[in-house]
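Folding Task

Wanted — backbone structure
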Amino acid sequence: MKKFAVGSFFIFLNVGFLVYGQMNGVALDEFSSAFDLFKQGDFQDAGLSFAHLYQAWPGDALAADSCFMAAQAYFNAGDYPSSYRLCEAFLRTYPGHSNIPDMEFQRGRILFKMQRFEEATRAFETFLKKYSDNALYPSALFWEAESFYQLGDIAHALPLFNEITEKWPGSDKASQAAWRLNVMGLEVREAKYSRLAAFESEQNGFRGIAEMQSDAYREQRYLREYFWLRALRRGNNFSEQPLSSVVVGNNIRDTRLNMLLNAKKRALDLLISKIKTYLREIEP
């Protein structure tokens, strides 16, 4: 995409060198040197040279092309503020230039790179309305959709991505749009899973609180039963010795009563033993 905006411009430059050579030999030499830097991939230095040429000879025939190339070189170098400044200067100073459509598209790309996504959507929308037959139309549509996506505006982004895949199925932007649609689908499912996990976590939290309350009530009940049984034991004056040692006489009724009391004592002792064990287990 970076090379596309200037691809047709390279042919124009090669033909134009003959004309420019008759106007300003110094400017032409500097432009040629900057152009060589650009082709070699030294975009930052190329941008500096093109910008200097544009500012040094603003009335020269090469000024407009130098401004255009400076904006492009700075963009390729990742110096987006400088690229944007020269982009705006080109659009403002040379409104009738043949590269105005390319520069308007580039303005949207620069704004996107600067994360000024709302402005980028407006820039691409302007391009799409003005240049419906331009070869960059699918790219502009893609980057407008991508700008909406970065803003979280899925309602606007989704139909634009779908339009690209339907109308330009064989283009590189169609494959990129399809990839973005897949990512969006995964993000929707992930969001659903996240909401479900949050709901389950909340429910588990409620169940945890309910279980804690139930444990607290059970501990309180055990404690009440423990103290009640201990008081009952003191009130009945239970001895640690076997009841048979304090039973006097051979009265059948007393024997049966003592047997019943002895059985009750064993049951109470067993319950008290379980309560004591439980209290030891929950002791902090």
